[in-house]
Design brief:
This protein is an alpha/beta fold and 177 residues long. The chain has helices spanning 2-7, 26-35, 51-60, 74-81, 85-99, 119-130, and strands spanning 13-15, 40-44, 63-69, 103-108, 135-138. The chain has one domain: Alpha-Beta Barrel (TIM Barrel), CATH 3.20.20.70.
């Protein structure tokens, strides 16, 4: 399948699902994609990535990772995941991806389980990553009755620094932070 991607002029590959790190052949798949010279992204929930997997992928220098958070703080994330302890696991693994130089951004889609008072926790958790130059990407705010609903910060920034300068995110509309 990978040679077909090249013939179709695919310029990058992103592996996603609930948790790509659950796949037993993930490293072999990643190595095969990288051997073709394609940039590789992984969107994960950061619950199953091992230190060995992170170290292996980090060595390539060509893998970026986006991590999904299902709510802020731990209680909200845990309600969605079914385990409050999953927040600590996701946050710790996210820090490991950042330390390995692979973390590109944080993804969050607040759900109907997210309480309005929790939106300030997004800022609290993400500020440490933002200060390191890591993008914080909120995919969407789908609930019309929740704070930040309809914010235009839902556009993901996908600039390849090797090909074009990065474009800043648009200014947040009134009421969005």
């Amino acid at each position: 399948m990978l040679p077909r991607l090249l013939r179709a002029r695919v310029e990058r590959v992103t592996l996603t699902s609930g948790e790509p790190f659950a796949h037993p052949d993930l490293l072999a798949i990643c190595d095969a994609v990288l051997a073709l010279g394609l940039p590789l992204g992984v969107c994960a929930n950061a619950t199953l990535a091992s230190d060995e997997q992170i170290a292996h992928l980090g060595k390539s220098g060509a893998v970026h990772v986006n991590v999904s958070f299902d709510g802020f703080p731990p209680g909200s994330h845990g309600k969605f995941r079914g385990s409050v302890s999953s927040f600590a696991t996701t946050l710790e693994t996210t820090r490991k991806f950042a330390a390995a130089g692979m973390l590109q951004g944080l993804l969050s889609t607040p759900s109907t389980l997210t309480e309005p008072g929790e939106f300030g926790a997004i800022r609290d958790v993400t500020e440490g990553f933002r200060s390191r130059g890591i993008d914080v990407v909120h995919i969407r705010f789908p609930n019309d009755d929740k704070p930040l609903a309809g914010c235009e910060l839902s556009r993901q920034r996908r600039a390849d620094p090797a090909r074009a300068p990065s474009v800043p995110l648009p200014r947040a509309p009134a009421g969005c932070r």
